[in-house]
Amino acid sequence: MTQLALVIDLNVCVGCHACVTNCKEWNTSGEAGPMVDRNPYGKDPNGTFFNRVQTFEVGEFPQTETVHFPKSCLHCEEPPCVPVCPTGASYKRKEDGIVLVDYDKCIGCKYCSWACPYGARELDADQRVMKKCTLCVDRIYDTTMTAEERRPACVRACPTSARLFGDIHDPDSEVSHAIREAGGYQLMPECGTYPANHYLPRRKVKLRIREDEIERADNPLKIDGQLPKPGKAEPTLDDVSSW
Amino acid sequence: MEPAEKMTQPSGQEVKKTTCYMCACRCGIRVHLRDGEVRFIDGNPDHPLNKGVICAKGSSGIMKQYSPARLTQPLRRKAGAERGVGEFEPISWEETFTILAERLGKIRATDPKKFALFTGRDQMQALTGLFARQFGTPNYAAHGGFCSVNMAAGMIYTIGGSFWEFGGPDLDRAKLFVMIGTAEDHHSNPLKMALAKFKRDGGRFVSINPVRTGYSAIADEWVPIRPGTDGAFLLAVIHEIIYKGLYDREFLVQYSNAGELVNCDAASDEFGMFLRTEVPEEEACYDPQDKLWWDRNANKPVVTHTPGSDPFLRGEFRMSDGTPVKPAFQLLKERVKDSTPEWAAEITGIPAATIRRLAHEMGVTARDQHIELPIAWTDAWGKEHNTVTGNPVAFHAMRGLAAHSNGFQTIRALGILMSLLGTIDRPGGFRHKVPFPRPIPPCARTPNHPNAVQPNTPLDGMALGWPADPDDLFVDENGGPVRIDKGFSWEYPLSVHGLMHNVITNAWRGDPYQIDTLLIFMANMAWNSTMNTVEVRKMLNDKVSDKDGNDDYKIPFIVVCDAFQSEMTAFADLILPDTTYLERHDVMSLLDRPISEFDGPVDSVRIPVLPPTGECKPFQEVLIELGSRLKLPAFTTKDGQRKFRDYPDFIVNYETEPGSGIGFLAGWRGKDGDKSLRGEPNPNQWEMYAKNDCVFHYELPKSYQYMRNWNQGYLEWSQRNRITRYAEPILINIYSEVLMRFRQAAQGKGFSRKPPAHLAKRVETYFDPLPFFYETLEGQATDKQQYPLAAITQRPMAMYHSWDSQNAWLRQIHAYNVLYVNTQTARANGIEDEDWIWVESQWGKVKCMAKHSEAVEPGTVWTWNAIGKAAGAWSLTPDANESQQGFLLNHVISEELPSAAGPVSNSDPITGQAAWYDVRVKIYKADEKVGAGETASVSQTTWPQFAPLKPYPGQAEPKSVWNYFAGKGGKK
């Protein structure tokens, strides 16, 4: 069974927010739109976004990591938002594992957002329906688009290609390879939600320089070095001793 | 390219290609329209720059297009209204042009320098510069002086090229990448793409920065450093590289002036100059190969590059006439003798062991991870090489190094370090982009005499250029400046991008003279693009009474062209509403700052996707119209008629000289569009760009893609295509004779002009032919007990300078800024997380919120640049977070420093680069004493505040709730 998902590589994410606004511009005029912006030019502007980047610090100076952490619906394999929905508006698709909300059935009761341990759902404050990432379901099956375009907007936009998209149940997919090889992990596994989205951790490259690599036989210092050459007239042992 | 039918969209939808301008990166984009509204903007997968990706800003272009901050009609300040209040009345374009043509015509007929044109981050300097020169004013520059001119000048005077548009790190083949200082905003998407690929390929990324944010977040190692001390770090690395023998000797010998002999006879007029075999035959703009080496084989002086010879890089020698000489490299070695890692550790705060280890990482990686590519090429001395080799250590830096008053010499040190490692225009190191490399310095010169400014006459020279010696300075007989910004004067001799940051203060003070009209294009000089913002706003509104008792402004007439209601527009007498990037034709020209790749020249265009909003008119069209009305020669036929219908017509038909075949665009030239780079005008050139993703990419043969300073094939290609005048090798300036010529003049030696007495010491001190570290000028003038902290800004990747607060989506990412303070530092000052504090320098203070951070070194505080706004500007409501919680650090930064001879610009004394990052501050809690021992919190609003701006006529009403959905016909 197919389970589509995003795999997000924290090792290369620079927190540029390309995924955040590209998602917004695609989806606000797409099947899931519009996505409201309240107070767009006033105090405390607050709009609906399906994807946000949180930035936080880990560790104490100078051993500090600054982590940029993109977050959206994780399309859980056991999504807690689905069984709590009183109208059946929240559902998980059998064919590809995408978790969606049927706006026509949603009554905006927020049960799903309370059930979601990841805070991934956003109530559209204007339309009073729950909204969230659809994995760009209105792109990925659109046959009027090229294969390159049939990917979620955030994946295509990402300048560092930190966002991979594919079927995590297919062991040969790019995402499955990445999860296996780079230590991909799920958020809060203790919740038993089996999120489909995975994150790849930071990986550090270090360089070990051995002492004997620093100075070598072909060191250019030897070429330019002029050993002192005393003048012929300067004193030598010959001047004082005949042995 | 996609087959045409693929681009066919469902009904009502169409896709148009153009070039982004949400920042200066200039990616290729596709704009998807639905019923004429922008439905989606994505990266063009076929574009060489961004290959389909797009950033947060580019993805928010819709919100820029439909922003209520847009100006939609020409506006005139209401009679009697004060500047800065923002009371305007609409006028027609015809009236606007009449006013401008009359006023500017009078100035041009009397004293053209009374018209000053300064432009923001525009990348259309080829046109604005042409207009200014044709007008005849020397008072023209773009924003480089307050941006990163130190980076451009420091590198170009050293290696003949620079970062960003003109070169960059080859991360495709690098193994070690060192980024120094904040550089997030320049070459944004290509650098992000390259960085990710570099890391995936197992490269090691080291970031040296006081702050860990942006790209530094994903560095394998973060090395916190104190601001303004990068020069000390670099000199210590150079020390270690030289004393451990980790330099690329072969590279230095062949391709730099390291082996060239310098006159060391302190009594001689030639002291510090290279020895030469003979006087060059012609005074030309290249570096003649007439210098000497001391040959190791023959143990005597020989002409450089004599076959069979090999110079000493170290030692001291005597010429036959007894003149003591040393190779340049020996002088560098002596210079860094005491610049030990221990010395630098004290200054930079980086442990000596770390400096030493990083130097070894650079040196050993460069030496042992040698790259060899099977590419044959011929060097400028005729020697054939079977391979191109490289040392895979790459660097990148921008404003973090540049925006200090010691930045030029720091960047010289970086250029020299990159050269010692043998990484210039080689795989895995730094690579040039056409039209660079250029001679050191490049050949463009300003006039050198005030007589170059004459009524009704174009300026006799370029307004901006590259001085090679004191005789190139643009000064009068007393050594005083000719330009309003004092560029190219003895105060800032190599101010190759001008000093926009001093124009208003100088014009207000009438120093060196008063001007009449200041035309500002797209620069927020009443806010984030100016230092000392509170006072500069007063200067813009300051009046003087004439003898008849009439008040007039000290800067009599201010014209501002902008697309948005910026803080600066409020101070205008006349506002010209610009179009957005989606509404205009535009070129990214080789005459300016193109988007070239390492493999060859690239230029590109914008083609309108949407009609102009309201009465908006592209500034390009304004200049063509004004140039025609003023009858400037370049815009007028011989019989005085208008030469160009409009800007697109100008771009196609303008040639730098009649018949030169060189124009703004390099692609599809010639009548049939079959010529590249040079060729007669092609009437269908725009159509060809439109058909080809709006971009022209000329890929050089592989053998011309590397070693271009010394690559015979490339240099001759460049000469044939008139990119350069000479096909002569460009040797790296380890030792800068150019700088020495200025120092020599300051010492009273030689035949060139001499500086005024009060500047001699300054020039002698800072024009050192070898890089050196000195404390920033502001640091030298500050009591650091009282102002213990350095305050700097960083660049958010989702916001381009001040541009995007009007953008409904981007402002939700950065609606306000706080001051980040190291937790220990904050606690030591009694400041808890999210306390409100005062940040005070010796020039001014601001009130803001403090945020504890572990990602900043303890001696530094920082905030995001240009998020804070004046109330009501940019169509934000007066209570918007940007003005009430956000703040501008500029209020505590001065545009001038005091000196014995009067104020001087707070800038690098060599280049005039604005020293944004030199300011020192103290911070303290913003509590108010109520009674004995009791305090009450102050209001949680930033300070200073300004009276809110009101919307101007013609601006759209800002929505309070917006459900944006393009092309409503499609749905809902």
Task: Give an account of the 3D structure.
The complex is a heterodimer of chains A (243) and B (972). In chain A, 17% of the residues lie in helices and 19% in strands. Chain A is an alpha+beta fold. In chain A, a hairpin with a 6-residue loop joins strand 4 and strand 5 (65-72). The longest helix of chain A has 11 residues, at 18-28. Chain A is elongated. The model of chain A has no long low-confidence stretch (mean pLDDT 94). Chain B has 972 residues and is α+β, with helices and mostly antiparallel strands. Chain B has a domain at 777-937: Beta Barrel (Barwin-like endoglucanases), CATH 2.40.40. In chain B, 22% of the residues lie in helices and 17% in strands. Chain B has 23 helices and 41 strands. In chain B, helix 3 runs parallel beside helix 15, helix 6 packs parallel to helix 12 and helix 19 runs antiparallel to helix 20. Chain B is globular. The model of chain B is unreliable at 1-8 (pLDDT under 50). Chains A and B meet through helix 1, strand 2, strand 3, strand 5 and helix 4 of A and strand 3, helix 5, helix 10 and strand 41 of B.
